[in-house]
């Protein structure tokens, strides 16, 4: 939609072929229904790609300011919540509505229920064929079909792979990103429902990745923003390794030595308490019971009678609780997919170098961002850039 608006403003006649029965459905699910548009703390370092320099080249100066201006010009009021940009009304539907209204205002034709399955170059233009058998001739084509992330089970977007094979494009295997991680431990069900501040460290071969924030423990493993931030690294690691170790620090505000000394002091003064009661107020009760079990300490044993080596093990485990990642949740649970067509295959105007007149945007490309509006910013920026470049030629596409 952003690409179409940008192209139409250049004077181009624009048609959108939409696979779904209504355009823009994915927007409604973003930001838990509030649509986190972008982030004032924007940094290109928050994107992951095999070609990070290309990411920096594609983003024009003041990308966030330009995005904010674009939406304000089409009628959306925007506010900042700790640097995260949202519609003033905090409704993702408002973002979709202003985009749809601008498409109508500019005379952009939208054809729904048309799933493009082939793109062929014909003379000076292109012929697109859909699953229904319809054929559409265009002079220029912008691909903004995204990926299968977040779609219903069994729903796939095959066009990116078809284009990559057809034109011999370098392609990075796509994996779920911003997604929950599945763990092998049997105690996961006992911890289900726990939410707590934690620091999480993921080990992938010789590489280590760490994030901190609200952790969610589930019956299958771990979730929450810090897990989402780590998930793309885990997904690629799982392609090469069967299992990945992860450590959870349930007390990230304490340094290791500081916590050990504090726990010892509690032990000296609260020696008469059962270990279950001794841990009250330190970590979530479900977590406390799991810690005791892993350390081989009975919850009814008094703190003063616990062996020193067991107590030392408990102290360390509260800062280094081990779990083992064996998978990610499926693609339909992912917010985005990492990987895609390499950025070296497109110009800074998003035009395919091996097939002039075809432009790639958004999730089709090998760039994925952190939580916090970064993936939508990538969509707005690449869409706007492609639309302006294609539309500036005054062509039908």
Task: Write structural notes for this entry.
The protein is α+β, with helices and mostly antiparallel strands and 397 residues long. The protein is 32% helix and 24% strand. The protein has 12 helices and 20 strands. A hairpin with a 2-residue loop joins strand 4 and strand 5. Helix 1 packs parallel to helix 12 and helix 8 packs across helix 11. The model has no long low-confidence stretch (mean pLDDT 94).
Q: Quick one: biggest sheet?
A: 6 strands, antiparallel, barrel
Determine the fraction of residues in helical runs and give it as a percent range. 25-40%
- How many strand elements? 20
Strand order, main sheet: write it out. 12-15-14-13-16-17
Spans of at least 5 consecutive residues whose pLDDT stays below 50 are none
Q: Over the alpha carbons, how many angstroms does the gyration radius reach?
A: 25 Å
Number of helices: 12
Distance between the termini: 13 Å
Which class best fits the helix and strand makeup?
alpha+beta
Give average pLDDT, whole number: 94
| Approximate shape | elongated
Structure summary:
The chain is an alpha+beta fold.
Distinctive features:
24% strand; 12 helices; alpha+beta; 20 strands; 397 residues
Write the layout of secondary structure elements.
Blueprint lengths: L1 H8 L5 E3 L20 E2 L7 E2 L3 H7 L4 H11 L4 E4 L2 E4 L4 H14 L3 E3 L4 E7 L2 E6 L4 E4 L2 E3 L15 H8 L4 E7 L3 E3 L4 H4 L3 E10 L2 E11 L3 E3 L1 H16 L3 E6 L6 H14 L5 H4 L6 H11 L12 H12 L1 E8 L7 E6 L16 E3 L7 E2 L4 H18 L6
Parallel strand pairs: 1-6, 10-19
Antiparallel strand pairs: 2-5, 3-20, 4-5, 7-8, 8-9, 11-18, 12-15, 12-17, 13-14, 13-16, 14-15, 16-17
